[in-house]
């Protein structure tokens, strides 16, 4: 029996009067909110509870601009309260098979432990970078604004700035630092970007790598590639040594160091460990949990993990896709659709096999592969937009990122129109990128 036909039949036969299943979604960012949106808009009867460490959604790809303009945070955030779901502002400390122990945070600084039962769970707590890039401690929006303001003051007072990391985050961060007002500085400022790879943006097309490095150098940023950074014995000098150990470069007196390399291990997954759902062998070296292609935990088929906190076994494209909002959104949607299928099958007393559920990335992206769609801003008026191997630079890239940013924030604030429009544009970009990538990789026949 065809899988697609069976899935549609199951969902169509779900009774509106049936007892609603309780679905717990943990994480209020891209993967979690896309899962919530898919569930609340479905025809299946669902009681959806969202647990998030923060009471706001933040469009992280644009957060770096807040180092230059802290007030810009209002444009890239929206409240998680007031949606078509139950919102719990807290942290899951223990996740058991059908129950979550949550520490609920209140504005008066009270912390109360509550137990939340569930039939299905979607775990979507992502990993991130150190602060201020990653929001590690700000549970309320006011706290996040205060952190950006304090960080901006420290950067403005620094004579030399050192950015560590040559990926998209490091490049965007170095570019934003060049936009800081010179008049506010007490002395000339130097910006240095250090990365361990021999080129910036190694996962992007060659033209994107070249454009980013030339842009930074033209803005006076010193770019040092192919080295490892460590503190010296006197703890006052940073030494960048090439991989063969022959070319040491010293940075004396760096007033501010901003780390944009590596990820913070997802300590939130300790909740699963405490509940007996995962063991040490279920985690990769970065702290991500291994899941099936259906995004289910191997030890619990009613619990899903998606976004940066998970890694699909034997998926060679996962590392490329893991740090993008696009991949997290599609993974959240796929997990939610699989929850709906499992719930419908239980009601119909039908046993579904793994092959009858949706799989990542085959059923998440056009043509079944992750398309290279990246948008990187270089200051306020320049950027790089990669659609497969096609590289677009200049103001068009900035316009594309700002458009995606506004649609995304509006969509996750509850606007159905903006969610439909965002989804449509996203699928169009994915499809175009997949087609261009397929044409680019196709080999011409020998003549």
What would CATH call the homologous superfamily of the largest domain? FAD/NAD(P)-binding domain
Poorly predicted segments: 232-236, 316-321
Task: Please tell me what the overall shape is.
Answer: globular
Over all CA atoms, what is the radius of gyration? 23 Å
What is the assembly state of the chains in this entry?
A: single chain
Termini distance?
A: 44 Å
**What is the total number of structural domains?**
3
- Adjacency order of strands in the biggest sheet: 7-6-5-2-1-8-18-17
User: What is the average of the pLDDT values?
Assistant: 82
Percent of residues in β-strands:
15-25%
Topology (elements, then pairings):
Blueprint: H1 3-12, E1 21-26, H2 30-40, E2 46-52, E3 56-58, E4 77-79, E5 86-95, E6 99-105, E7 111-117, E8 120-123, H3 141-156, E9 160-164, H4 168-177, E10 190-194, H5 206-218, E11 222-224, E12 227-231, E13 237-242, E14 248-252, E15 256-259, H6 270-274, E16 289-291, E17 296-297, E18 300-305, E19 310-312, H7 318-321, H8 325-347, E20 373-377, E21 383-387, E22 390-393, H9 395-412, H10 416-441
Parallel strand pairs: 1-2, 1-8, 2-5, 8-18, 9-10, 9-15, 10-11, 16-19
Antiparallel strand pairs: 3-4, 5-6, 6-7, 12-13, 13-14, 17-18, 20-21, 21-22
Helix pairs in contact: 2-8, 9-10
């Amino acid at each position: 029996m065809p899988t697609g036909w069976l899935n549609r039949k199951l969902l169509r036969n779900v009774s509106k009067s049936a007892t609603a299943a309780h679905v717990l979604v943990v994480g209020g960012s891209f993967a979690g909110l896309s899962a919530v949106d898919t569930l609340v808009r479905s025809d299946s009867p669902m009681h959806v509870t969202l647990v998030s460490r923060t009471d706001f959604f933040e469009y992280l790809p644009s957060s770096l601009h807040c180092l230059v303009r802290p007030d810009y945070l209002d444009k890239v955030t929206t409240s998680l309260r007031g949606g078509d779901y139950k919102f719990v502002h807290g942290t899951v400390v223990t996740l058991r098979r059908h129950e979550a122990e949550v520490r609920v945070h209140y504005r008066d600084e009270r912390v109360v432990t509550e137990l939340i039962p569930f039939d299905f769970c979607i775990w979507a707590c992502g990993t991130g970078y150190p602060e201020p890039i990653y929001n590690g401690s700000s549970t309320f929006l006011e706290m996040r604004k205060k952190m950006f303001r304090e960080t901006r003051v420290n950067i403005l007072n620094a004579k030399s700035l050192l950015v560590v990391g040559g990926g998209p985050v490091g490049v965007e961060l170095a570019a934003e630092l060049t936009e800081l007002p010179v008049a506010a500085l007490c002395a000339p400022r130097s910006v240095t970007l250090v990365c361990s790879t021999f080129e910036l943006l190694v996962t992007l097309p060659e033209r994107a790598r070249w454009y980013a490095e030339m842009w930074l150098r033209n803005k006076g940023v010193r770019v040092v590639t192919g080295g490892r950074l460590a503190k010296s014995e006197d703890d006052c000098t940073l030494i960048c040594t090439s991989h063969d150990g022959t070319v040491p470069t010293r940075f004396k007196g760096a007033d501010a160091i901003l780390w944009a390399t590596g990820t913070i291990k997802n300590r939130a997954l300790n909740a699963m460990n405490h509940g007996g759902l995962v063991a040490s062998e279920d985690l990769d070296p970065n702290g991500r949990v291994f899941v099936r292609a259906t995004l289910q935990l191997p030890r619990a088929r009613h619990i899903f993990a998606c976004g940066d906190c998970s890694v699909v076994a034997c998926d060679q494209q996962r590392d490329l896709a893991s740090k993008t909002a696009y991949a997290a959104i599609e993974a959240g949607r796929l997990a939610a659709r699989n929850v709906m299928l499992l719930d419908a099958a239980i009601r119909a007393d039908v046993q579904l096999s793994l092959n009858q559920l949706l799989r990542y990335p085959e059923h998440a992206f056009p043509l079944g592969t992750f398309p290279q769609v990246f948008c990187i801003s270089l200051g306020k008026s320049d950027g790089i937009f990669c659609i497969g191997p096609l590289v677009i630079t200049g103001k068009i890239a900035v316009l594309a990122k700002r458009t995606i940013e506004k649609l995304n924030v509006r969509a996750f604030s509850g606007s159905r129109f903006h969610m439909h429009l965002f989804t449509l544009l996203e699928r169009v970009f994915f499809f175009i990128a997949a087609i261009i990538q397929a044409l680019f990789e196709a080999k011409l026949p020998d003549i």
